[in-house]
Every structure is written in structure tokens, then in C-alpha cells.
Design brief:
about 120 residues, alpha+beta, two-stranded antiparallel sheet, 3 helices, about 10% strand
């Protein structure tokens, strides 16, 4: 879920229930209540402050706990010999460069793994 801090009131809101993706370039990211076109809180979850949340490099918010888990996972991955760690943003960049369906096409001719192998 992509969440962001409203630039007017500082609350947390979800990009899917606001005009986040359709706003004009350079205009502020507003929650549903501060957006004059919507004008009321959507009620999908309680309104809360973004204070204490961590802003990711792409501008979205995550909880401090999620940030700590992500950092632990990144450190653990770095300790694996012979593996180049590219992080979540590296994975996203790969899929944008290769096309989202690249993985699906590559796996299309591979047999599906058995979830319950025979004993």
C-alpha cells in the first residue's frame, strides 16, 4: 500500500483513495479531506498523523518497524557471498527496464513447483 503525508495537514493517506496520481505536476499531495475536489475523509482507515513515519527514497511512508525490518533484511542479504544486493529499488528498476511481463514470459515454459511433494 503506497501511503504519503498530506502536504497541508500532515496526516497519512493512501494514494489509491485520493487524487495523488492524477494531480498536476508540482501541485501538493493532499489527503482526501484537504483536497477541494473531495473535501471529506474517506473513512477507509482512521485519520492519523504522519509524525514518526519514515519517508522512503521514492517519497512514500513506512512505519519505523517496517524500516527496521527492511534494514535488517538488507544487511543479511549483504552477508551472502557471491550475491549482488540491489535492494527493492534495484528490483523495481530491473522490472521497469525489462518490462513487467519479462518474468512471466520466462517462467511460462517452466513447470510449476509442487507445493506438496510426494513422500
Amino acid at each position: 500500500m503506497s501511503i504519503f503525508a498530506c502536504e497541508r495537514c500532515g496526516c497519512v493517506d493512501n494514494t489509491a483513495v485520493t487524487h495523488y496520481w492524477t494531480r498536476k505536476e508540482g501541485s501538493p499531495a493532499l489527503c482526501s479531506e484537504c483536497d477541494p475536489e473531495i473535501g471529506k475523509w474517506h473513512g477507509r482507515f482512521p485519520k492519523q498523523s504522519a509524525a514518526g513515519m519514515v519517508t522512503t527514497p521514492d517519497g512514500f511512508l513506512i512505519s519505523p518497524e517496517e524500516d527496521a525490518r527492511s534494514r535488517q533484511a538488507e544487511e543479511a542479504a549483504k552477508s551472502v557471498d557471491g550475491v549482488k544486493h540491489i535492494g527493492l529499488f534495484g528490483v523495481a528498476k530491473h522490472y521497469f527496464e525489462m518490462g513487467w511481463n519479462y518474468s512471466a514470459r520466462w517462467h511460462a515454459d517452466k513447470p510449476l513447483p509442487r507445493l506438496n511433494p510426494p513422500e
